[in-house]
Amino acid sequence: MQYDPIKNDLGKVFNRSAGMRKLFYRLLDILLLRSWHIRSELKAWAKGKPGQLHILDAGAGFGQYVYTLSKLNPNWKVTAVDVKEEQIADCNRFFSQIGEANRIAFEEGDLTRFVRENSYDLILSVDVMEHILEDRLVFENFHASMKPGGMLLISTPSDQGGSDVHHHDHGPKDGEVHGFIDEHVRDGYNIEDIKEKILTAGFSKVEARYSYGAPGKISWRLSMKYPILMLNATRLSFLILPIYYLLTFPFALLLNYFDVKNRNHPTGTGLVVKAWK
């Protein structure tokens, strides 16, 4: 099951105007359960922080979370780094169109080499670390780039079925959520393993919890897995999807709500990790 080609096709459609791109971001926020978890954490972190802060989105992709950050506080300055030149150009163009180029900038960067000493109050990394083999080096770079007291926020697949990168010949295992992405270099993180790696990188405190628990797994199948399977079979499924979502969307929303409200899932196919310098 291929995710990136479909995501790129959707990006091209919604990149035709600033209004369409905002709609695209809104749809991603509603459909993607990881976005629910990240926005919840960002809102909690933002409380009591009215001043000018500097934030790094490490692996920004389409810029969805940069847009979220831009709406939380007009005083924040955001640097967004990614390896894809075309997406960087598209994002810079969009944020210039909406008048945010003075405080938001996208640039090309390899996270294994990207270091800005003591620069950021918050570093955000969503669905990135599972793609990088030299993860310890990246965690060290994050630590060096963060101001004292700053926070690192990561969303990544867990080892509870988070990625079937090595199982293409046998099909996905039951309950797997993130395994349809081909470019993962590891089968998700063990929760204790990622905590150990982050602490070893120099962080003073780390917390990690499971996301995509029992309700999240069902929601993901309804809102993402089955639609993507249909689109992989034929792009004509775009014509069927509005009816499909009309029937399934209310259930997916309710399941997302329960997954975010429960901060103590005993297991889950995703991880939300926070660490402080």
Compact summary:
This protein has one domain (4-211, 262-276): Rossmann fold, CATH 3.40.50.150. It has 277 residues and is an alpha/beta fold. Strands 3-2-1-4-5-7-6 form a 7-stranded mixed sheet, sandwiched between helices.
Written account of the structure:
Residues 163-181 have low confidence and may be disordered. This protein is 44% helix and 18% strand. The protein is globular and about 50 Å long. Strands 3-2-1-4-5-7-6 form a seven-stranded mixed β-sheet, sandwiched between helices. The termini are far apart. The chain has helices at residues 4-14, 18-31, 33-46, 64-72, 85-97, 135-145, 191-200, 214-233, 241-261, and strands spanning 54-58, 77-82, 104-108, 120-126, 146-157, 205-211, 270-276. It has a single domain (4-211, 262-276), classed as Rossmann fold, CATH 3.40.50.150. The chain is α/β, with parallel strands linked by helices and 277 residues long. The chain has nine helices and seven strands; from the N terminus they run αααβαβαββαβαβααβ.
